[in-house]
Structure formats: C-alpha cells, structure tokens
Amino acid sequence: MKLIFEKSVNGRSCTILPKCDVKQTCLDEDLERQSSLDLPQLGESDISRHYTELCKNVYGVNDGFYPLGSCTMKYNPRIDEQIASMPAFTDIHPLAPEASTEGCREVLDLAGKYLCEITGMDDMTFQPAAGAHGEFTGVLLIKQYHKARGDEKRTKIIVPDSAHGTNPATAAMCGFQVVNISSSEDGCVDLDALKAALGEDTAGLMLTNPNTLGIFDENILEITRLVHEAGGLCYYDGANLNAVMGIVRPGDMGFDCIHLNLHKTFATPHGGGGPGAGAVGCKAFLKDYLPSSAIMGSKGIQVRSFSGNFLVVVKALTYILTLGREGIPEAARNAVLNANYLMKRLEGTFEPAFERICMHEFVLGLGRFKEQTGVSALDVAKSLIDRGIHPPTMYFPLIVHEALMFEPTETESMETLDHVADVLRELYELAHKDPEYMKGAPHNAQIGRPDEVQAARNPILRWKADD
C-alpha cells in the first residue's frame, strides 16, 4: 500500500478551524520557520480509508495465534482496558496535590504488595518504562550495593549463554564486564563453568528461570548459593514469570532483585499495543537503593519521570485482582500445559532442541531438518505467514542451531493448538516434497520476502519527498 505522504494532494484538507477568539502573539521573525511543514494533505475520507487499510494489514493477538517465544503474547482482557480508561485515572496530573492522588497511590501500593507476594520480594518500584529499563535499574541496585560497602573490586556480571540478549547489554551499560558461561547438555547452567567464573571480582549473576529454552533449572538453589558464597548478588530476569507465577517465587529461589515485564505476564498491551512497564522488586537489604516516586511522597533518585507508565500498572493490578489467588497459578499451569501439548502434537516431525517436559515455551532445533530438505527455520516461519499464523521467535536462543521458539500462552484453546500443529505437520511434509516453494514464502502476504542483508546495511527509515 502507499504511504500517507504518497496519497497527499496539494491543497486538500479536512480541517475547518473557527476564528481565533484570543489575542494572537507572533514569535520573533528569527524564531519562525523559513519553510512550510511538509505534511500530507488529505480529505477526511482519504485519512479514514488509509488507517482502515493499515488496520487490516496489522497482525495482533486479536487476529490469531501469536507464539513469539519469550514474549508472552497472551490475550489482553478488555476489563483491564476499561478500568485503566476511567477518567479518575486518565485525567490525574502527576503534579496534582497529594490529597487528590490518594487513589493513584493506593493503586501503586496495592500492585506493589501483590507483586512482592508473587515474586517473594520485599519492595517494588514501577518507574522503569519497560523490561530492559527494568534490567538496567535492577543491575544498578547491585552496583550501588557493592559501592556502598566499599567493595568496588566487584566488576564482573555472569550471564549464561541462554540468556536474553538484553542481559549482557544491560550489564555492559552499567559498567560491568560480562562473563559468559556455557550451558550443560541438559540446557541448564553448567555448574562447573559457574564455579570457574566466580571470584572476588563477581558482582552478580543475571539469570531467568525457566530459561529461554523453556527449561526450569533444577539446580537453582545451588546456583544462587554459590553466587552468594562468592559475595555476589543474584538478579532474576522476570520476563519468563508466566510459567511460575503463584507456584514458585524467585525470592525463594535465592534471588535478590527482579524485574517484571508487566506488559507480558500481567496482560497489559505488548508489541505496539501500548507502553510497557518494567517493575523492579528487591529484598529488604536493597530497598534503600530503589528509585523513588514523586507521587509516593519520597525524594529519592529517579530513572524515569514520576511513577513510570502508571496506566500500565492499573491494567496489571486489574488483571491480578480479576484472577485472584487461585486464578494466577491456574494461568501458569495452563501456559505450561499448552506448551507441552503443542510440543507433543509435533512428535515425529520437527525435533525439539531438548527432549524433556518444557515450561511455558519450547524450542525446535531444525538443524538436521535443514540438512535433509534445504528448508531453513526462516523458510518455515515465512510459510506460516501464508497460513495466517504469526511466526514464532526465530534463531533464538543462539545456542540452538536453526531455532524456532514457540510460546502458546494460556489464552489459546485446544482447537487453536490443534490447528497450528496440523499446519506445522503440513509444512514438514511440504518441505520434503516441494522445498523450493517454501524458500519463496510468503506468497500471499502484503509484501514478499525482503532482502534482509540489504535492509540491514542500507535501511530506509524515513520517507523523503521527491526533489
């Protein structure tokens, strides 16, 4: 489809402004623009049709199966949106008098209380704007802790090779040296590699459990014990909490601080649907290093303006209150059930990277499949688009060759999972019969397969008018 700039017709408009009823004040001439704004000029019907066409070409959780691994693309309940749209929340000003923000403070207090209970932490901040921002804040807690104790020789953060890519990036941004450790044959942390990496210069360990392979590390208590004995702290990447919420708590695993992707586990919009929130929790001994919120009446440091993305917290709290003490662990169990059900339905076709019960997600390793057929994981993902299914996460984690990572989430029905399994089985057979057809996929999408190397090296990021 054409860009809105390409649909522009000179002189066309849809806005009729009333005559200005206040005194006009003009800027000094040297402050005024010397050329007109290059904005598209369209009629109201043109604009309406343009955005309707865009809407039809966008794929979201309301359109169909969206199995992006490690992203938890679950359905967002409408009640969350309704509560967060209440004028009492949307119309509040962050600098309003304390007496008029008591309800908002109660929302933050209550959300913090419940999330601390779910994670096993003692305090919580909602300032970080998203998951990676939460990571940054959490690792800063570790840095401040060691600095306050005068233990500034601790300059290294240990990160497993199965970690989210943001983990080593976050540690580096906080000024730490990243020490990468390998996984063992079962996909979990190699204890010998961990022991070899630990020392007096260890500041901490960044880990998610279940990990990005969808595996719960049964040695987690030993892992956190070893790090603590070495004088380091343990940071929990809470992006994968969907499999364990209400069942096991990171704080009980031995973790000292955590970030939560409220826009994942706690069903607030994700992936273009709205802002995120990377709530950060910690144990009591790290409480004094948490960023403070102006609306909560404190004067501490801040990593973002005011209280972060407040309306996202409203949605998350609504989700927690709707599910309640019984519904939260039930959602986690169903997420694990759905992932294992889909993986089981694929037996005899694509091979899982690890032949064992998974948690909320699983990874297929298509290395041998590609050798047999010439069809890559990318070809399979593109072929799913032709069948109305959003592709899973591709080529991650990096330790699995030709990886496809599926996370069905608890909101998918058995009928949907059966359909997806049937489609994947069809693609498995097609790859053996007509691999060239799959290599050209997608055939029915809005655009075909782009030249990804060219796009990466010479990206076109903005529209430019013809000279």
Structure description:
The protein has 467 residues and is α/β, with parallel strands linked by helices. It starts with 43 loop residues before the first helix and ends in a 10-residue tail after the last helix. It folds into 3 domains: 1-16 and 39-57, no CATH class; 78-321, 3-Layer(aba) Sandwich (Aspartate Aminotransferase, domain 2), CATH 3.40.640; 328-455, Alpha-Beta Complex (Aspartate Aminotransferase, domain 1), CATH 3.90.1150. Strand 4, helix 8 (220-229) and strand 5 form a beta-alpha-beta unit. The strands form 2 sheets. The chain has a 7-stranded mixed sheet with strand order 1-7-6-5-4-2-3, sandwiched between helices. A 3-stranded antiparallel sheet has the order 8-10-9. Helix content is 37%, strand content 10%. The longest helix has 36 residues, at 310-345.
Short summary of the structure?
With 467 residues, the chain is α/β, with parallel strands linked by helices. It is 37% helix and 10% strand.
